Amino acid sequence: MKKNVLIIGAGGVAQVVAHKCAQHNDILGDLAIASRSIDKCEQIIASVQEKNSLKVPGKLTSHALNALDVEATKALIRETDSQIVINVGSAFINMSVLQACIETGAAYLDTAIHEEPNKICETPPWYNNYEWQRRELCKQQGVTAILGVGFDPGVVNAYAALAANEYFDSIDSIDIIDVNAGSHGRYFATNFDPEINFREFTGQVWSWQNRQWTSNTMFEVKRTDDLPVVGEQTTYMTGHDEVHSLSQNLDVPNVRFWMGFGEHYINVFTVLKNLGLLSEQPVTTAEGLEVVPLKVVKAVLPDPASLAPNYTGKTCIGDIVKGQKDGQDKEVFIYNVADHKDAYNEVGSQGISYTAGVPPVAAAILIARGDWDVAEMVNVEQLPPQPFLGLLNEMGLPTRIRDEQGDRALNF
Amino acid sequence: MKKNVLIIGAGGVAQVVAHKCAQHNDILGDLAIASRSIDKCEQIIASVQEKNSLKVPGKLTSHALNALDVEATKALIRETDSQIVINVGSAFINMSVLQACIETGAAYLDTAIHEEPNKICETPPWYNNYEWQRRELCKQQGVTAILGVGFDPGVVNAYAALAANEYFDSIDSIDIIDVNAGSHGRYFATNFDPEINFREFTGQVWSWQNRQWTSNTMFEVKRTDDLPVVGEQTTYMTGHDEVHSLSQNLDVPNVRFWMGFGEHYINVFTVLKNLGLLSEQPVTTAEGLEVVPLKVVKAVLPDPASLAPNYTGKTCIGDIVKGQKDGQDKEVFIYNVADHKDAYNEVGSQGISYTAGVPPVAAAILIARGDWDVAEMVNVEQLPPQPFLGLLNEMGLPTRIRDEQGDRALNF
Description:
The structure is a homodimer.
Chain A: E1 5-8, H1 12-23, H2 25-28, E2 31-35, H3 38-50, E3 60-64, H4 70-79, E4 84-87, H5 94-104, E5 107-110, H6 135-141, E6 145-147, H7 155-167, E7 170-180, H8 194-202, E8 205-209, E9 212-216, E10 222-227, E11 231-237, H9 241-249, E12 254-260, H10 263-275, E13 283-284, E14 290-291, H11 293-300, E15 314-325, E16 328-339, H12 340-347, H13 351-369, E17 377-379, H14 385-395, E18 400-403, E19 406-409
Parallel strand pairs in A: 1-2, 1-4, 2-3, 4-5, 5-6, 6-17, 7-12
Antiparallel strand pairs in A: 7-15, 8-9, 10-11, 11-12, 13-14, 15-16, 16-18, 18-19
Helix pairs in contact in A: 1-3, 1-13, 4-5, 7-14, 13-14
């Protein structure tokens, strides 16, 4: 039984996390929000208050924090008496926040893999390069650390575990499909931090095929599926966190991730990439100023949080799983459909932030209740999926399944 | 009679100017090259020596200069005993170099209009905002200043003057067509300083139509012409320097400038512009660094000078002039075709730099000889075109004409 949550980060996902924690503060206790910019924390608190999201009267505080500073992070964990830390800040701070949790005993949750600013697309499996190097230490210290517990990675890992546990005797392939069929009405924008977004696509595309790491380039391999609600959609094989844990934790020969892109997105991306504007390596201007092009691209693009008020349409994210059950070939699609407008009305964020921000709160509730307080470092597929997906059914991200019996809601 | 030339700037155009000055140093005397980077000056000198471009033994020196510093520029003019200054540096330095010339009595030549870094596309006619404010002072001091004496502006202004003097009683329209049908083999590059290049296209497109300034947006108005050598070409109405002097100096109701662009160029430009990456106004990165996006784009694009070795194909630049002669409607196209490979073989630069760099040297020779040493500030159309075009016929940029009598070389 743990309580009191420290949320690190103050972007669109943090806003969802704050609202959802507030909606469950009877279980989660005090809430603290920390980021480099205390103003952004206070804006989130104002939004939580405006929407009356707190279930019961409780503490909700803002804090300025450089989360790369382990000592400062430890001090804040202790000052706020937080036993659960939800890290939804930049992907560059994972290892320092994790270290602070290990040293204070707080449970650690994040939604994306650690990255170093000057490195892109390192050797697979990516978790081996950073987080998993602390696995033994977490076990020794009895620290609960749940890695990648957003939607993808996160919920899709739970879908994979559910498929493996309930629907298949053996699995041939897991293809994770992520389609955003929404429209933000701007010339171009990314749905989360442009820096992290583009970094996903500029390196090699790693997939797990025939039990081997396979490398492709972005937009080299595509597929088209007829998906529930959003219809026929083309997606492209993309490097993504969950491939790097599912391939190691499940006995599945093929794990691939596919993301949907429109032609306009691909054109803009291609121009920027070919010009070198998505590079994480600094260039020097004629005036002698050293600058990372990708950071300038980020600076000119819309703040993803600013898209929320006018975002319409739906997302569809799920796992196409193929394998055998009772000697028969079988295929299921386990998925969620979320609506941008509904998300905005509930928590003031768009659907992409919503799908990423609700799951870590569900996980925090499971830690608070004890179900998932496992005293070690795990990826989501290593945990029982039912309590998690059951909570998400109630919290706004219901699970559905499409198989030979049709398309229906899944209850747990 | 003036002699000794100071070349300011050390880019691709300066390289052409240096070679061409060297080829005529019997008339022009000592040559000095100055830029912020003395290394680039020395590379040009090495190229001049490598190709044995000096006609007679003579001085050729390099100098580090911040040309925004009027006193330093005056000192260098005096130190090098230069009576002619060819300014082919950035468009931001025109006014300070001009001031240094006025205060030392040196003749001033440039190839592009003055610009302020933080302003784009000011009120027409552009020359009124900067250079022409020194017109009276030049006259009082007897200083020769020939503005915009590259190819366009420059040679095309002489073509317009020639048409007005020789081929028409009255002119209805001058349409200046600039087509680069060459290929550099790179994903994307600009043919001269990307910063200046893009600034031409991000503001309003000013044209002179029915004796009024008319505003359009870039790529809004296009035309297609069947041109000599390069064939059928689509060009787009573009704001350009020469429209701003020809409209004031010639009695012509319509003066327009048209530049050729391929679909790929337009796509890249459109993406960059719509994202805000061509802005001359600084943005602030998440890390707090203030940076001008356009300068970062410039930093990632190929150095235009680096395109020269692999550049193939031809340019076609000229004036389509329509009007009346002896009571008859008449149309002529006065033009030049230049070859990228020929330019590289002669002076180590590509064709765009060649067409821009040869004309100011021809003008310098005319000043040295006295023909164009007019002791006042003028644009090229205010000078007799024949000696200029005659020299260019010998110097590598021959003039041709296409009219009702066919397509032929023009001799002067």
